[in-house]
Amino acid sequence: MSTRTTKSLEGKVVVVGSQGVGKTSVVIRYVGGMFSKAVSPTIGASFFTYKFNLGNYRVKLQVWDTAGQERFRSMAPMYYRKANAAMLVYDITSSDSFYDIKDWVKELKNNVDTPLVLCLVGNKCDLEESRAVSKDEAEEYASSINSLFYETSALKNMGVDEAFLQVAKQMVHLYETNPNSGLNTMDLYMKSESTHSDDNNTDIKLDAKTSPNNSTSGSGCGC
Amino acid sequence: MAEAKEADRLPDHVDHYESSDQGDFNENEAPGDSHEKILIASDSYEDLNYDDIAVSSFGKPYSGSIIDIVRHNSCSDEKEADASSLNLINESSAESSNEDQNEGQVKDLSADKVPEDVGEGMKLEIRENEDFGPEWRQKKKHLFIFSSAGKPIYSRHGSEDKLVTIMGVMQALVSFVQVSGDNMRCIIAGDHKFIFLNRDQIVLVGVSSAGDSSTQIVLQLSYVYNQIISVLTYTSLHKIFKQRRNYDLRRLLSGAEKFIDNLVNMMDTEPGFLLGAIRCLPLDAPVREMIEQTIVLNAKVKDLVFAVMLANNQLISLVRMKKYFLSAMDLHLIINLVNASESFKTAESWTPICLPKFDSSGFLQAHISYLDENSQTCLLLLSVDREAFFTLSECKNKIQERLLKYNSLRAISDSLATTSYSIQQCGITDLRHFLYKSKSIAQYTSPELEAPYLTPADQERLFGLYHYLHHRIHSPARPLKILYYVGEQETLLGWMTQGFELYTVFGPLVTKTNAIHAINKLLRWIKKEEDQLFILNSVTF
User: Fold this and answer.
1) Residue closest to B464 by CA, chosen among B155, B234, B203, B191
2) B449 shares a domain with B391
3) Would you state the pLDDT for residue A58?
């Protein structure tokens, strides 16, 4: 699939946020294309990979879906170290989960020295009736931290693909414009990647992925 | 690291018993005996007393001897003459009553005023609160955990928030006794035992009317304590409470309650915890060898300490770093972690885990993944390197590939499909069920539960019988080598030697001679099957 002219880009995405906001559901919706009601709390962190084509790039996302539980908080650096992007997930029905994002942003800014694509994700947007965080407020906050912003519903499959796609686009942009993006280390991965192309299940979904056009619901207000 | 005791034993090739199925089994030829250390039987039940668990690796020593009160509903005609040691609080205090000498009298809170008041107080609380109605009270086993400042941490039944007053009362009791330099250990109230385990910063209270002995409950509590350590490490638990004595530990344990829930539920049904032994998945020796070799070949990476393969709470293989050993208790916690977590089934996971017996001060990093599509066979790679995820992920892929190629995963799922073996296979009439533990390898085997133990109630009763037999044989005051006990519905025969522990359940009409013949025959059968039932070789990287 990948011709020699196509560049390969490998990006590490860390998904953070409070307990029970739906981080795993969002990731599984994106990677596995499904929603399970019986997602059990993540222990430590789960690792997913997702590959797709984006313009001239063959993008491989390494997604670290972290546990939201307090006790794993001290482990977080292990997962966000060398990350290229962070999905900051909160639950639109819980203002606490939204305020927790601010701590995360602070922590990430202090500890990650490479440029980091941020994407604020307000999950559970199907629960409009119990909304506790207004879209305006979140949008305003997102632009103040120079972050993308999407409201998503893993349940109804709204916004998830767009959010990840925008993150990937930003990473490509970052790679092209910023030589110190941290993403240029991918040259190493490029070689090694050609030797083992595992993840065949993710390849299957590629077609659905390569034509991302449908929605502009989220306002990509990043840089 | 505690060294497992090297029991004296005979070489495995002594085969002279083959000739006949009559005659005595040489008790030195323990089936499943091995010179090699596979698992550390660190918590052999005999060693379990307050001194041991309190001192072993952490905390300051407690004084005093083991407690032992016995009350058994099912087998109550037995006089518990061996229950001679104290049952309540102060060894020295006159307050501890003499009820233990005759359990028939133990129908009420017999200790003096302190516990009595408390008992009343508790009842009052319970009545006041609708959430803790008859249903709550009738639960056979309760578990409460609170901090030494009295903050609730966990309750098995009911919300610990609403139980805050009860825990307050318990905390008051504990500290009242502590003031006089003693430790609260046990209260007997009718059929109920309240067992207290006071560790550095947290107090665990087990309440049971199920008939387990005090020591058995202490063992259960120490499993739970170790589960908490496994989530937090002793070091951070200690640090937290040093900084803030009234810290609400639930913050840090949130999400880990299910491990405790799962652990206590497992302890109610799984004899391995009681025996301090692991059950292995029965596999033909060459298959197991092949799996072990696969792991050794493909996971020989720096800093990988243990590779554990599990299926359905049974051990398939364990490969360890040369210098290090895994204790049975730690392995139980690993099994509990896997058993309680659905999330490992969705993707490869990378999670910290502390193994208290191995090192209570820090975390190992565990790469956890399932090798088959049905999520049955779970592989855990435990490393000290926090950055090793991708290396281990690669190891896992190679292992998986090779196991698929050689059909090992198929063999595992075939073995799982037949849950265990039928008692029929042993070919002994009137033998209904048994537990056999080989001490040197800390592993046990038992057949499937068949009629008449098909309903949960009957299984619970059977388990109760094993608890009774186990307790009598391990009674600290009067340990027994052999116990033959005729009950109403079954006859029990327990035998303990240096190499093994055997607990058998016969029909009620078996004679003593027949039962003894039968266990000789059974031991020969186990010996014959030992390669399949146990892991006898210790494999290292």
Assistant:
1) B191
2) no
3) 87
The minimum CA-CA distance between B254 and chain A, rounded to whole Å, is 6
| Gap between the Cα atoms of B121 and B114, Å rounded | 11
Q: What is the CATH number of the domain that holds B401?
A: 3.30.450.30
Residues of chain B in contact with residue A42, where contact means CB-CB under 8 angstroms, are 343, 349
Of the three residues B246, B275, B304, the one that is the final residue of a domain is B275
Token look-up 């032992």 returns: B68
Residue B8 lies in a domain: no
**Residue B378 distance to chain A (closest CA, Å):** 15
Contacts of B337 in chain A (CB under 8 A): 43
Select from A31, A43, A71, A80 the residue whose CB has the most chain B CBs within 10 Å, as the one to mutate to test that interface.
Answer: A43
Q: Residue B163's pLDDT is what?
A: 84
Domain boundary among B377, B400, B418: B418
Say if residues B443 and B526 touch (Cβ distance below 8 Å). Answer: no
Same domain, B217 and B356: no
Same domain, residue pair B33 and B120:
no
In angstroms, the separation between the Cα of residue A223 and the nearest Cα of chain B is: 32
Helix (H) or strand (E) run with residue B469 in it: helix B456-474
What CATH number is attached to the domain comprising B508? Answer: 3.30.450
Three-state secondary structure call for residue B218? helix
Q: Which domain holds residue B295?
A: 283-418
Which letter does DSSP use for residue B420 in this model?
Answer: S
- The ipTM value here is 0.77
Burial class (CB in 10 A: 0-12, 13-18, 19+), B286: exposed
CA–CA separation, B436 and B452 (whole Å) = 20
Domain count, chain B: 3
**DSSP state for residue A118 in the 8-state scheme:** E
Residues in B whose CB is inside 8 Å of some CB of A read 231-232, 251-256, 258, 337, 341-344, 346-352, 366, 368, 386-387, 389, 393, 397
Percent of the residues in chain B that have a pLDDT greater than 70, as a whole number: 78
pLDDT in tens, B476-522: 888 889 999 998 889 999 999 989 999 999 999 899 999 999 999 99
A40 contacts B342? CB cut-off 8 A: yes
Give domain status of residue B382, yes or no: yes
Same domain as B228, residue B110: yes
Nearest CB among A24, A69, A79 relative to B255 is that of A69
Instruction: State pLDDT tens for residues B356-390.
Output: 999 988 899 999 999 988 888 999 999 998 889 99
CATH code given to domain A7-210: 3.40.50.300
Residues B290 and B268 in one domain: no
